[in-house]
Amino acid sequence: MTARILDGAAVARTIREEVAARVSELAVRGIRPRLDVVLVGDDPASQVYVRSKARACERAGIASETHRLPAETSQAELEALIDRLDADPEVDGILVQLPLPPGLDTHRVLDRIDPEKDVDGFHPENVGLLVQGRPRFVPCTPAGIMELLDREGIAIEGRHAVVVGRSDIVGKPMALLLLHRHATVTVCHSRTADLAAVTRRADILVAAAGRLALVGPDHVKPGAVVVDVGIHRLTERQDVERLFPGDAARRARFEEKGSVLTGDVDFVRVAEVASAITPVPGGVGPLTIAMLLANTVASAERRKGGA
Ligand code: GUN
Questions:
Q1: Does the active-site annotation cover 47?
Q2: 3-state SS class at 242
Q3: E runs forming strands in 165-218
């Protein structure tokens, strides 16, 4: 079997077009949604993510401001910025890029964001609403994965979904969203005994463990749908050759850029077993950004639009 590629980038484009149409409707009434992004420190991956978020806002007609703070920023200084954004009526969405540098208390920062502006869905009030099945803001990555499954016509109800990873950002909200759609859900993590035996039971397998090529063909039931949330940068030619044997295009990209991205799934070998699979890049990543735009516009509609 060779799996169908689930084109997250294409679905994300459609979602972004829908968002842009909603932005235009607001513009007619003189309303412009605005997202403020907070980046503390100089983590290179976070810098790339924050830049893509700002660019996506611009393209969708959403105002955005990025607040770059040095790694030495104190808890009090960071909280003072959050307070200012909470109080600013122009601001519809506040996103604090994670992880924060060591020494800063992430929970205390997230608790301080106005839950009505928490477009990441990480505030405990929004987490609670999601748990109860009456979500306000759903975390962007799992929300994007649900959009992908729905728009690609993948049935969820009654199927066994296995989520590998239990993070607050992806694993836990992903499990809840699948559960609310009547999947039977299993959550695995680094201490799960015989991971492959558990994941082989999945009709829908979501890999969000943050471990390079963790999910191989032995982890996947023939015909399963596999969603890869991982992002890893391969900087060694031998790793590219091992994971993508004979893939001339990827090899060429590596030679050009000095690195290529891949995920938690051994894509080439798993694609021989699965019925459908998301690629990295071009799978889940673009959906995450599209859902951030959607959450920001929903916030503006609620806050400024009387919706
Ligand atoms: N770091 C990795 N993913 C995310 C995300 O979805 N939101 C934020 N704020 N930080 C992240």
A1: no
A2: helix
A3: 184-188, 204-207
Residue 305, pLDDT score = 84
Cα distance between residue 119 and residue 126, in whole Å? 10
- Of 117, 152, 176, the position where a domain reaches its end is 117
- 151 and 84 in a common domain: no
Q: Is the entire prediction scored with pTM above 0.85?
A: yes
Q: Could you read off the pLDDT of 89-141 as tens digits, one per residue?
A: 999 999 999 999 999 999 999 999 999 999 999 999 999 999 999 999 999 99
**For residue 95, which atom of ligand 1 is closest to its CA?**
9
Residue 195 belongs to domain spanning: 140-284
User: Does the active-site annotation cover 53?
Assistant: yes
Q: Does the active-site annotation cover 264?
A: no
Residues 6+ apart with CB under 8 A from 292: 35, 53, 56, 93, 95, 119, 120, 140
Q: Residue 116 has what pLDDT?
A: 98
Residues 262 and 163 in one domain: yes
pLDDT at 1: 64
Buried b (16+ CB within 10 A) or exposed e, 170-179: bbbbbbbbbb
- Asked if residue 38 has its Cβ within 6 Å of ligand 1, the reply is no
**189 alpha carbon – ligand 1 mean position (Å):** 19
**Cα–Cα dist 12/22, whole Å:** 15
Is 93:296 a contact under the CB 8 Å cutoff?
Answer: yes
**What tens digit of pLDDT does each residue of 134-187 get?**
999 999 999 999 999 999 999 999 999 999 999 999 999 999 999 999 999 999
What is the sign of the dihedral through the CA atoms of 42, 48, 51 and 56?
negative
